[in-house]
User: Fold this.
Amino acid sequence: MKSPGTPRTAVLGAAAGLVLLAGLYCVLAPWVAGFGGAGVLAFSNTVVGVVLVALAIARTATRRLRFLGWVVPVLGAWAALSPWLLRQAAGTQPSTAALVGNVVAGAVAVMAGVVVVVRRD
Assistant:
């Protein structure tokens, strides 16, 4: 017989998995999507991706860090908006694949982060 918390735990695990995948994409995107010389955006993506991966792993490993759940949607929003916000700093426009990839990864991180925040375990 399943315990009453099993569906909630499964949802949180799936959300943490999506955050992990979004973070991995952010780390790999400068090489996969071809940022076209947009070094500031590549650095931003790498930092955001590493933090997302670390938070996803930490959230899966322990429940003590649940108070940091609000950080994931903020980082996701930054990942989605950063191509436009960092345009002036880069000097070189990122490729369309980089723009679309950032928006999708950011949206996934925001949605999964909201699930983690709303469904506290």
